[in-house]
Amino acid sequence: MLLPALVLIAFGGHALFKLLWDVKAGEWLTIVTDLAITLVRVLSAIAISTVIAVPIGVWIGSNPRLSKYLMPVTQIAASFPSRSSSQISTSSSYSSAATCNGAPWC
Q1: Alpha-carbon distance 90 to 96, whole Å?
Q2: pLDDT above 60: residue 100
Q3: C-alpha atoms less than 13 angstroms from C-alpha of 48 in its C-beta half-sphere
Q4: pLDDT tens digits, 53-93
């Protein structure tokens, strides 16, 4: 059982090496730039959502009256996967082709 796994890992590593060997320097610059832009966007989204969500959560948690009404709503919202809620929020303002750039897995 271990030998087939090692063979598959070696084959995948070799295929990855061949694929990356053909990438030119200008393309690497584009890849690194796009990765940096993506990192900034993700960290910005986390920072903005934290600045919004933490005070609201503290407000709800420290107010028993609000907690009585809003805790069930937050529990229901927390049960949905984040991917499904992002599709609901983006589908109203963007077309799926614009948000997925035509990717087949979206």
Answers
A1: 8
A2: no
A3: 6
A4: 999 989 988 999 988 988 888 888 888 777 665 655 555 55
Distance from C-alpha of 91 to C-alpha of 20, rounded to nearest angstrom? 35
CA 35-43-56 angle, to 5 degrees, is 160
pLDDT of residue 48: 97
Report the predicted TM-score, pTM, of the whole model to 2 decimal places: 0.57
Q: What is the pLDDT of residues 15-34, one digit of tens each?
A: 999 999 999 989 999 999 99
Closest CA to 96 of 45, 88, 85, 34: 88
Contacts of 77 (CB under 8 A, 6+ apart): 85
Quick one: how far is CA 73 from the chain centroid?
Answer: 24
In angstroms, what CA-CA distances link 72 with 66, 75, 83, 91?
A: 11, 5, 21, 26
- For the beta carbon of residue 37, count every other beta carbon within 10 angstroms: 10
